[in-house]
Amino acid sequence: MASVKAPLLENAEMFDQEDIDQENKVSNQLLHPYVTLFHVLFRMAALISYLLCGWFSDSFIFSFVFVVLMLSADFWTVKNITGRLLVGLRWWNYVDDKGVSNWIFETKGQSSSNFNYAEKQIFWIALIACPIVWTGFFVIALFGLKFKWMV
């Protein structure tokens, strides 16, 4: 497959100077506490609302829409903010002149000194654990005959 250059992106910097300066900071604290909080917050809000929706509302539609909105906010946050700041990942899609959809994936380099270890751990654990929990909920809904939640 030939290398494809995205129009208007050839001269763009991969990461800001702030991200490069951040490599020199060494700390046991979280460098981005609010970013880390929101990385976990939207996922937890979706899980908690799924678990508790029957207690607060009898409306399946309201509960379903709220869970989908929280998961959508989580996806946007991971794609645009937390992936970039916590582990140095970003991606996007563009359609070239021939109508072909091209995905661009970038990484900032994964040496251990570039990113805060605790933030990396939180990012990857949350990214992997939540789909496992959702799979468990799917199995429970399947055996509990709650077919409306398996959509």
From TrEMBL:
Keywords: Membrane, Transmembrane, Transmembrane helix. One of its GO terms (cellular component) is Golgi membrane. Belongs to the TVP23 family. GO terms for biological process: protein secretion; vesicle-mediated transport. This is Golgi apparatus membrane protein TVP23 homolog. InterPro entries: TVP23-like. It is a multi-pass membrane protein. It is found in: Membrane. The chain crosses the membrane at residues 34-53, 60-78, 122-145. Pfam families: DUF846 (PF05832). Its main location: membrane.
